[in-house]
Q: What sequence folds into this?
């Protein structure tokens, strides 16, 4: 027996693929497949909206310009509504979507759909008005007045007005002029916009008449979209906050303008937070209750405690750093794909700058790393930014793994993420991470700095799947 | 978007659309009303239509279901029969049929959906199509006019009640 197996052992070990790497690759492939299927599902739902209209003989109504315009108006309305419902689903923070692509990617898609959806709805109104006016032999103004008197049509026009307000305030240039809270309040009107537009679809639109499959399908879509919002944005966070009874246990200054907030609560490990994730927090004090903030866990929660680290970047986070022990805290989350579970490559390369250290620290804490697997580069422009650095070096998972630091300001007038000194020594992303192409790259820091790191990584030939970034700018 | 996601999206959308296209074209295409046969479709503004003078004088009935048969029931019914007035959310719909020797010779819409100008224009479009279909099929088992679902449903159920009275 030993004679038979002994010679084969060395051959096998040489060929054997590391089981961890294999699992990662399989999981990565499965995630990509699911993500692709989700995208296909979105476009199939657009096709389904049109197909139901076709199946009910939509094309047979076309017999000339007026009816063609009317048909186009119906189709643009159906597709526009479908896209708006897709946007609601994307914003619902459905756990499956967050796990597969991450909420930030979902929201990027949500933003891309905004303007097309509005244009389709505007076209829907315009085409139908012109089409009806031509069919009735009246003009656009008379037709608009007549339409306005139709069943539930006043509400539909109100919905259109709200939709315009929501999209216009969300256009980047306009959004900057509003405080986040003001913008968010206006954005919440989109729920109202969609709901007040619903009655006219069921009554005035002969397309969704009683007893048709179309009516059932569309009502199901509405229930799905609003149900997802109600469950995952309202019910789950409310239940979770009540269940865990989180309160501020203490606030500790770790650097000028940077505080660690220690939280205490019941069964916090049951949140099943993965290192590197964030949650959206609301601190119930007089100065802070009206705004919620996405903040990363700077340590993996234990059963009774959790820790966040915040830098006072805006007026909101400055107020948060002054919260007192005992304040009640509610949580939405945890969310995020900046975790070990999303790795696809055998090695790990990490770059963190400033407050970007927080998700990096908890991600590394939660990772199982072999010696030599990870290389970490901590970046700060001056020593005041070296908070939590000592903790990273002390992590159990970092035993046998290298932690480098790069201190000093960036050179002026040159687009680089490195310090003047490092540049002078000829440091590149390739010299810091010699095995970069065989690694997952995790980057967190200020957005413009992240972009430069990624630019260099892409230039070095790193595939997109291996680039992991956490963005907070939504 | 990744190439596979793009391909998957195009394929699934195309498949879904093809099904819709098939169902839509298989469904019976509404017969285009013959221009010469539209004597009964001149609609006054109220939306209710009167039959052409050539038809036997219809007996207007109050919205109700009483049959105004002018001939005794026999093997081959003859006369005019008024269907029930069917309420829809765009107004009541009522039709009257003229029967000669057991076959429907004319359908007259006494009242059609007329809640607003839009409904009137939909009714004016749908009524001649429905009349043609009914005369061709000699029954209420005909395809409704798309885009005029409420009018069609009301029209056909009022028609069915008239057919029941006529014993057809």
A:
């Amino acid at each position: 027996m030993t004679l038979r197996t002994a010679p084969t052992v060395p051959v096998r070990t040489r060929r054997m693929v590391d089981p961890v790497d294999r699992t990662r690759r399989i999981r990565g492939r499965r995630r990509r497949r699911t993500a692709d299927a989700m995208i296909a599902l979105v476009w199939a739902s657009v096709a389904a909206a049109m197909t139901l209209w076709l199946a009910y003989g939509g094309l047979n109504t076309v017999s000339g310009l007026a009816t063609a315009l009317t048909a186009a108006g119906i189709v643009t309305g159906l597709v526009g509504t479908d896209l708006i419902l897709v946007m609601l689903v994307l914003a619902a923070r459905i756990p499956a979507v967050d796990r597969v692509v991450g909420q930030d990617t979902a929201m990027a898609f949500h933003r891309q759909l905004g303007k097309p959806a509005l244009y389709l709805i505007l076209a829907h109104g315009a085409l139908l008005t012109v089409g009806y006016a031509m069919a009735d032999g009246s003009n656009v103004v008379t037709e608009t007045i007549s339409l306005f008197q139709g069943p539930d049509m006043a509400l539909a026009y109100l919905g259109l007005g709200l939709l315009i307000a929501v999209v216009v305030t969300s256009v980047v240039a306009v959004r900057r002029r509003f405080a986040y809270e003001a913008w968010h309040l206006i954005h919440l009107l989109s729920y109202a916009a969609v709901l007040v537009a619903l009655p006219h679809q069921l009554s005035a639109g002969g397309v969704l008449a009683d007893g048709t499959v179309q009516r059932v399908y569309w009502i199901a879509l509405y229930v799905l979209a609003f149900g997802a919002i109600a469950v995952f944005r309202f019910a789950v966070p409310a239940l979770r906050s009540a269940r865990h009874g989180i309160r501020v246990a203490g606030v500790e200054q770790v650097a000028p303008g940077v505080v660690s907030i220690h939280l205490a609560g019941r069964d916090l490990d049951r949140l099943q937070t993965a290192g590197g994730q964030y949650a959206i927090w609301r601190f119930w004090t007089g100065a802070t209750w009206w705004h919620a903030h996405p903040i990363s866990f700077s340590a993996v929660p234990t059963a009774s405690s959790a820790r966040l680290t915040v830098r006072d970047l805006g007026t909101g986070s400055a107020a948060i750093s002054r919260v007192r022990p005992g304040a009640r805290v509610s949580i939405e989350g945890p969310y995020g794909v900046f975790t070990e579970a999303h790795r696809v490559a055998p090695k790990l390369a990490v770059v963190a700058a400033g407050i970007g250290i927080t998700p990096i620290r908890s991600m590394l804490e939660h990772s199982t790393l072999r010696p030599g697997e990870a290389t970490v580069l901590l970046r700060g422009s001056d020593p005041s930014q070296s908070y939590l650095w000592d903790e990273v070096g002390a992590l159990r998972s970092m035993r046998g793994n290298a932690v480098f630091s790069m201190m000093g300001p960036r050179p002026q007038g040159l687009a680089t993420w490195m310090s003047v000194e490092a540049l002078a020594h000829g440091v590149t992303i390739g010299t810091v991470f010699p095995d970069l192409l065989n690694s997952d790259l995790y980057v967190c820091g200020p957005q413009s700095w992240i972009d430069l790191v990624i630019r260099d990584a892409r230039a070095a030939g790193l595939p997109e799947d291996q680039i992991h970034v956490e963005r907070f700018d939504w | 978007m990744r190439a596979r996601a793009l391909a998957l999206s195009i394929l699934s959308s195309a498949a879904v659309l093809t099904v819709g296209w098939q169902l839509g074209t298989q469904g019976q295409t509404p017969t285009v009303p013959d221009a010469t046969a539209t004597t009964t479709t001149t609609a006054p503004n109220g939306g209710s239509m009167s039959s052409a003078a050539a038809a036997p004088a219809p007996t207007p009935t109050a919205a109700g279901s009483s049959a105004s048969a002018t001939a005794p029931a026999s093997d081959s019914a003859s006369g005019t029969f008024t269907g029930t007035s069917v309420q829809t959310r765009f107004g009541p719909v009522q039709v009257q049929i003229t029967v000669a020797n057991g076959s429907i010779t004319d359908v007259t819409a006494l009242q059609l959906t007329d809640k607003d100008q839009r409904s009137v224009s939909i009714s004016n479009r749908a009524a001649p199509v429905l009349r043609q279909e009914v005369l061709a099929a000699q029954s209420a088992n005909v395809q409704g006019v798309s885009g005029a679902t409420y009018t069609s449903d009301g029209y056909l159920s009022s028609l069915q009640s008239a057919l029941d009275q006529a014993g057809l």
User: Anything to note?
Assistant: Residues 28-74 of chain B have pLDDT under 50 and may be disordered. Chain B has two domains: 1-30, 32-166. The CA atoms of residues 14 and 92 of chain B lie 41 Å apart.
